[in-house]
Specification:
Layout: E1 3-4, E2 13-14, E3 16-19, H1 28-40, E4 45-47, H2 56-65, E5 76-81, E6 83-84, E7 89-90, H3 94-108, E8 113-118, H4 127-139, E9 143-149, H5 153-162, E10 167-173, H6 180-186, H7 203-209, E11 213-217, H8 236-249, H9 253-262, E12 269-272, H10 277-284, H11 293-302
Helix pairs in contact: 1-2, 3-4, 4-5, 8-9, 8-11, 9-10
The structure holds NADP nicotinamide-adenine-dinucleotide phosphate.
NADP nicotinamide-adenine-dinucleotide phosphate (NAP) binds at residues 19-22, 47, 149-150, 171, 217-221, 225, 228, 254, 271-276, 279, 282-283.
């Protein structure tokens, strides 16, 4: 397993994260198998959110962890708050952040979170309330590290004006099929393609400049949760290149798709969403692959892009 150290901690975290969004579909026994397999493969980083199964993912995880030999303190457990499931709103108010963390800790049966991320920007967010919430959570020892998800650079700047804890992580969507995080840098100032549109305020370069670790979510999905692009007949050219490189490196096409993200010099983590231990093993094989410069571009171009 490749590891990295997030600026000002946590250190030695696995570059592949076990994402638990789909864990509510598993029995407690199968969830325990997933956790054990992940840990044996070197995965020590777990991603949750209050909205995954409206809390069910965290509950199932805690019940399952108790059935394994994995100790809570050997894991970096991250959860996210700010998307409410009881009412249709995003909510970064102080009260919601504090109450959410209390709920997370109760469901996860732990007294601290290694990392808390704000999940999706609340249009009405007040950075002073976020700062007060983070101060309380840090002082009580309930949260050790903080970050954001799907958050624009200027929103992070606004938070930084009041929040004193470093914002260490930004969780963003990235895959060969959903590569808008990268595309805008290639097509800048180009009126002939909408891939030149900057949709995120330059999040990739901002995070690199500010030592914020990017965690790539849905690394295999078409669009938002429309299924996997690997072995999908709608992507023949991409699958041909994935297949050729899979053969060269002796891994699966899935591993090559993950290696494409790991190869980016921003040194991202990748969040695996599979709930199948065999698929997880295949994905982790990506850590053994170092794609060449040319191969990285060949994959990118085969996913429907062109050099301007
Ligand atoms: N911050 C955010 O806004 C945000 C949004 C979405 C997700 N996330 C995080 O990112 C994680 C990953 O998201 P995701 O589940 O959409 O990602 P993903 O890893 O791209 O997709 C996983 C899905 O692909 C399927 N799949 C089919 N064949 C596979 C194969 N050979 N190998 C691996 N998977 C295969 C999996 O099914 P099987 O289980 O059958 O393998 C599963 O349904 C989530 O768990 C969550 O932690 C964050």
């Amino acid at each position: 397993m490749q590891t990295l150290s997030i600026a000002s901690g946590p250190e030695n975290v696995s570059r592949i994260i076990l994402g638990c969004m789909r864990m509510p579909a598993l029995s407690t026994e199968d969830a325990a198998k997933m956790i054990s397999t992940a840990y044996e493969l070197g995965i020590n980083y777990i991603d949750h959110a209050t909205c995954y199964g409206a809390g069910e993912a965290e509950t199932r995880f805690a019940e399952a962890l108790a059935l394994t030999d994995v100790k809570r303190e050997d894991l970096i457990i991250q959860s996210k708050c700010g998307i409410r499931t009881d009412v249709k709103t995003f909510d970064w108010s102080k009260s919601n952040i504090i109450e959410s963390v209390d709920g997370i800790l109760k469901r996860l049966k732990t007294d601290y979170l290694d990392v808390l991320l704000l999940h999706r920007p609340d249009l009405l967010f007040d950075p002073e309330q976020v700062a007060e919430a983070f101060d309380e959570l840090e002082a009580s020892g309930k949260v050790r590290n903080f970050g954001v998800s799907n958050t624009m650079p200027m929103q992070i700047e606004l938070l930084k004006k009041f929040v004193k804890q470093p914002l260490k992580i930004n969780q963003l969507q990235l895959s060969l099929e959903q590569s808008q995080l990268i595309d805008q840098d290639l097509y800048m100032n180009n009126k002939t393609t909408e891939m030149s549109v900057m949709r995120d305020g330059g999040a990739l370069d901002y995070c690199r400049l500010n030592d914020i670790t990017i965690q790539a979510w849905s690394p295999l999905q078409v669009g938002m949760f429309k299924g996997n692009f690997v072995d999908n007949p709608e992507f023949p050219e991409l699958n041909a290149v994935l297949g050729k490189l899979a053969e060269k490196y002796g891994v699966t096409k899935t591993a090559i798709a993950i290696a494409w993200i790991l190869r980016h010099p921003a040194k991202m983590q990748v969040i695996a969403g599979t709930m199948n231990p065999v698929h997880l093993k295949e994905m982790v094989e990506a850590c053994k692959v170092e794609l060449t410069h040319e191969e990285w571009y060949e994959l990118y171009l085969s996913s429907g892009k062109f050099l301007p």
